[in-house]
Structures are given as C-alpha cells and as structure tokens.
Amino acid sequence: MSGPAGQTPATGPEGATAALLAKRNELEDQLATMSAPQRDVGGISFGKRVGEGTSMAVDRISSVAAHERLQDMLTDVRRALVKVGDGTYGRCDDCSEPIPPERLEALPWAVRCLRHAGAARR
Ligand SMILES: [Zn+2]
User: Fold this and answer.
1) Which of 19, 96, 114, 122 is the most exposed place for a label (fewest CB within 10 A)?
2) Which CATH number goes with the domain that contains 110?
3) Domain span at residue 113?
4) What is the whole-number distance in angstroms between the Cα of residue 91 and the centre of ligand 1?
C-alpha cells in the first residue's frame, strides 16, 4: 500500500488533528458497515452505497482480519487524539522517545516508535 502523494505533510500536532479526526470518522464508518449483520449472504440485495461494490466483495473474504486491523487502527487513532490533547503527540507511549517525523508523516496515528509498535502487536 502506498500513502497518498501530493498532500501537504502534516507534521505538527495541529495539522495532524484534522487528519486524525478524518481517519477516525472513516474507520468508524467502515467498522459500522462491516460489523452489521450480513443477513443476505449470497447476493448483494441490500442497498449499499454506489461504488462500494468492489471493496465490499473483497471485504467479505477477509472481513475478520480486516475488521481486526481497522479496530487496531481506530484504537491508535483515538489514542493519538488523546495524545494531541495532553501534549504527548509524536512521542512513543512506551519509551516516551520522539517518533521519527517520517513515520508520523506516513502514519499520523502512530503512538509508538517503530521498535515498540512491533512489540505491541500480536
Ligand atoms: Zn518506544
């Protein structure tokens, strides 16, 4: 996966907040769609938003893994927003060391340095 190119890099907490809020809304929306009971398995008879058909089909195949991944990401996004509020945004939750700017640029909701991000995952 490649990140969106051509965007103004949001390096400071202020710039990151907008990106974090947008991401949180997006994730909550996706999770709400995914965790909705799928009663009509076998046919897309429910009225989903136009243009979502392709990703819906893919989602169904790996919906459990994808749901877990989104949930993890949402947790990080929410945590990052709290960190913006208490002034610790951009610092690792585990060691309090600054998270590299290039990591925050690629992943504005990063709440741990590379070392601890890896260790925290299952
Ligand atoms: Zn760390």
Assistant:
1) 122
2) 1.20.120.910
3) 13-36+51-120
4) 8
What's the 83 CA to ligand 1 centre distance in angstroms?
15
Q: Helix and strand tally (H, E) in the chain?
A: 5, 0
Q: pLDDT by residue (tens digit) across 77-118?
A: 999 999 999 999 999 999 999 999 999 999 999 999 999 987
Position 3 in a domain: no
Our count of domains for the chain comes to 1
Kindly state whether residue 60 falls inside one of the protein's structural domains. yes
For 1-122, list the strands marked E by DSSP: none
User: What rounded mean pLDDT belongs to the chain?
Assistant: 79
Q: Which residue is associated with the tokens 């990401």? A: 73
H helix or E strand, kind and range, residue 120: helix 114-120
Q: How many whole angstroms from 113 Cα to the centroid of ligand 1? A: 4
Cα-to-centroid distance, 80 and ligand 1 (Å): 14
